[in-house]
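Entry for the shared binder. Reason: the reviewer on the internal report wants the predicted structure included alongside the sequence.
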Amino acid sequence: MAGAALLASGLTACAAAPEPRPSRPPALAARATAYCQGGITKSGAETRRGVIAADPRVLPLGSVVHIDAPQRTHDGVYRVLDTGAAVKGRIVDIYMPNCRSARRFGRRDVVIHVLEWGDGGRGGRNGRRGRNSDQDR
C-alpha cells in the first residue's frame, strides 16, 4: 500500500510540472538591406511585399520571420522566398516595389524572430502559397 501511495505521488509530481515554453522565438541580430528588382524569386514565386532574400544556410527558403526594424514602418512578418549573391550570413534583403524607398532604406541593423523554419525549397508551402502570398489576400 505504501508503495502504491509513493508511486501515485511520484506520478502526480511528474504530471504537474509542464515544460517551460519560451514566450518569443529566439532573436537573431542581422543586417537588412532592400531591393526593388521585380521578377521570379529562387522559390519560383514572383517578388511582392512580404518577401525577403536570405542566406539559405541561415534562413532556409520558406521560413517565416518577424523583423523588428529601427523604423516601425518596416516591422512585420516576411517569408524567405529568395536568395542573392550578396546575401551571405546574417543579412536579409527586403523586397520593396519602389526603388526610391529601397535606396532610402539603405543598410540597417534589425532583429529577426523565426516564426516557422522553411524546408529549403524541397516541397511544402514555399513560393506560391505562403502566408504573404497574393492568394491569401
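Summary line for the report: The mean pLDDT is 80.
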